[in-house]
Amino acid sequence: MDSGLGLYRHTFRVPSRWDGRRVFLRFEGVQYGFDAWVNGQSIGSWASSYNPSTFDITDVVKPGAKNLLAVQVTTRSKGFDFDENDCWALSASTAMSNCFPRRKLIWRTTLSRAL
Questions:
Q1: What pTM was estimated for this model as a whole?
Q2: CB of 5 within 8 A of CB of 91?
Q3: Which CATH superfamily includes the segment(s) 5-96?
Q4: Alpha helix stretches (DSSP H) within 1-115
Q5: Three-class SS of residue 82?
Q6: Dihedral pair phi/psi, residue 62, rounded to 5°
C-alpha cells in the first residue's frame, strides 16, 4: 500500500465566556494516525485508528477569537501493517470532532477525505 496523507483545516470560535476554563478537543475517530495543531501549536498526535482521542487545548485556544485547527492524517501510523489487510486502507477522519469546556459542546464537524 502506498503511503497516504490527508491535510485538513477548520476554523472555529470558542465563546469568550470560556476564558479561564479548561478547553478540550475530542476526535471521535480518525482512520489511522494523525498529528494536530491549533493556531500553529502542536496539540498532539494519535496512532490508534478509530479510537477516540482528547487533547487539552486551553493553552493554545483564543476565547472570543477565530482559531485554526490543522490535522495531518496518515496511513503509515504505528500498527498500519495490521490494518492494511482489510478494506479500510485510506486515510481520513471517520467521525465527528468536538470542542468543549468540561462537558459542554461548542462545535461538531466531520473532516472529509482530501481530494
A1: 0.69
A2: yes
A3: Galactose-binding domain-like (2.60.120.260)
A4: 80-83
A5: helix
A6: -115, 100
Please compute Rg for the chain using Cα positions: 14
Tens digits of residue pLDDT in 3-37: 678 888 999 999 999 888 889 888 887 777 889 99
Tell me the three cell numbers of residue 45.
498526535
Q: Summarize pLDDT for 60-93 with one digit per residue, the tens.
A: 999 999 999 999 988 765 555 555 555 555 544 4
Is residue 42 within 8 A of residue 35, CB to CB? The reply is yes
Cβ atoms of 93 and 7 closer than 8 Å? no
Annotate 1-19 with b (16+ C-beta within 10 A) or e (fewer): eeebebebeeebebeeebe
Q: Which residues touch 55 (CB under 8 Å, ≥6 apart)?
A: 24, 25, 26, 36, 43, 44
Q: How many CB atoms lie within 10 A of CB 42?
A: 12
